[in-house]
Amino acid sequence: MITSPHNEKLKEIRKLGSRRERDRTGLFCAEGEDLVDAATAAGAEARFVLRAGEDVEPELLDAVSALGSGTRVIGVFEQRWSSPGGALSMFLQGVRDPGNVGTVIRAAHALGDGPVVLGPECADPYSPKAVRASMGSIFARPPARGTLDELAGTRIALDPGAAIELREVEASSPIVVCLGAEREGIASEVAESVDVSARIGMRPEAPDSLNVAMVATVALYELGHRMAGHG
Amino acid sequence: MITSPHNEKLKEIRKLGSRRERDRTGLFCAEGEDLVDAATAAGAEARFVLRAGEDVEPELLDAVSALGSGTRVIGVFEQRWSSPGGALSMFLQGVRDPGNVGTVIRAAHALGDGPVVLGPECADPYSPKAVRASMGSIFARPPARGTLDELAGTRIALDPGAAIELREVEASSPIVVCLGAEREGIASEVAESVDVSARIGMRPEAPDSLNVAMVATVALYELGHRMAGHG
Fold first, then answer.
1. Pick from B137, B203, B207: which is nearest to A207 by CB?
2. Least CA distance to A139: which residue of chain B?
3. CATH 3.40.1280.10 occupies which residues in chain A?
4. Which is the most buried residue in A161, B81, B87, B111, by most CB within 10 A?
5. Which pTM was predicted?
6. Would the CA dihedral through A32, A33, A35, A40 be positive or negative?
7. Does A225 contact B201 at a Cβ distance shorter than 8 Å?
């Protein structure tokens, strides 16, 4: 039972709160039973796992938690990265909110068959908030890294200003759905190298934009069902 | 120019960080240019607005912000509540995460035509995180309060364990989409009083659940397009 805040494992967990340390070590933390269970289900082996009251005093685990008090378990894992691929995948560029990155990873796991490819200026998918938002899909479907020109397939950019609706787009697989920054939208270099730009069809009096994670989810749902022959 | 942290307006903003104060006064704060602009666009008049560097010293505004530093403007507004209605609306019960409540309010604004009806044990839609997540839709489409038995129409519960997919459900308008708690799912009293339960169709190897806000968005997209005759 760890009873000292100077314990090396606790120090390591605390340090992994910073992106620099995660990049340097290739490790990250998953907090909570659900995430540690998701790791096991996906065959990801922990470097170590600390359980409150079993391996460590609860207050000490709380003190190194990145997500707040009441944490009962924290595991340290190796980051895994996929290669881009699949019949339906997603490319993100400039998505800086870690919660959005994690949610898109969840959506791609549920509704697509390829990994989320993280382009320039995205949040770290292994940050605590992104890992939590992925609801464990970070283990089952690790993200990839790359640039748009490395990706094969029909590239569809989602852009609220596009003239046509995604529903009207005819595309053959493999399809790469491209999404840009929360505020700035699709970067011009991305817009120039896609095959088509489309918007999510909304009501006439609708707002001019949706959250990135919602757009990703709807797009994967729409295209995934169509590809599966339900459309 | 406000130069004292003891200023009454600053004190009021700070107090409105608590649900108790929001419930007592019927007021709430909107932080950031985008939200204050959304209020203006929706015709919501502010009790008062404080702008950093114009009305108040920037550090003092930062100190009362509920969302972190760098806030340039905070407005105080009256809470508004809609009556339930519309051809396509959403009922939430036990959705305790304010970000999810706000995101669903955004989704309903974009993809539905009725307000989000908040049933028992939901997060306060006027909390800072919910207001931010609504991206201003809290002004354009204020939420309603109620219980499921007060709502008219075809009630469709979204439940990952349901036998049929939402895509297969035939329903006539008005439709009320019902969603339950993040973890516990649909409450049994809700499940008993809906007309049909359905799940979002996912891939065979998909995870067993999606985030509440994603489920709501996909459901509104699916049903909204079908009702508009696109389906």
1. B137
2. B207
3. 88-227
4. B111
5. 0.91
6. positive
7. yes
The yes/no answer on whether domain B88-227 falls in CATH 3.40.1280.10 is yes
Query: Could you read off the pLDDT of B48-102 as tens digits, one per residue?
Result: 999 999 999 999 999 999 887 788 999 999 999 999 999 999 999 999 999 999 9
Q: How many CB atoms lie within 10 A of CB B125?
A: 25
Of A137, A167, A217, the CB nearest to B218: A217
User: CB A109 to CB B218 under 8 A?
Assistant: no
Q: Closest Cα of chain B to A140: distance in Å?
A: 9
Asked if A230 lies within 8 A of B167 by C-beta distance, the reply is: yes
Which chain B residues are within 8 Å of A202, Cβ to Cβ?
110-111
CB atoms inside a 10 Å sphere around CB A213: 27
Strand partners, A95: none
Name the packing angle between helices B212-227 and A98-111 (round to 10°).
Answer: 60
CA dihedral B187, B191, B196, B199 (to 10 degrees): 30
Q: Cite the residue boundaries of each domain of chain B with CATH code 3.30.1330.30.
A: 8-78
Indicate the helix (H) or strand (E) that contains A216.
helix A212-227
Q: Does the domain spanning A8-78 belong to CATH 3.40.50.720?
A: no
- What pLDDT, in 10s, does the model give residues B133-179? 999 999 999 999 999 989 989 999 999 889 999 999 998 899 999 99
Secondary structure (DSSP) of B103-124: HHHHHHHHH-SSPEEE-TTPPP
- CA pair distance A125, A128, nearest whole angstrom: 8
List residues in chain B touching A: CB distance below 8 A: 99, 103, 106-107, 109-113, 133, 135-137, 140, 167, 200-203, 206-207, 209-211, 213-214, 217-218, 221-222, 224-225, 230
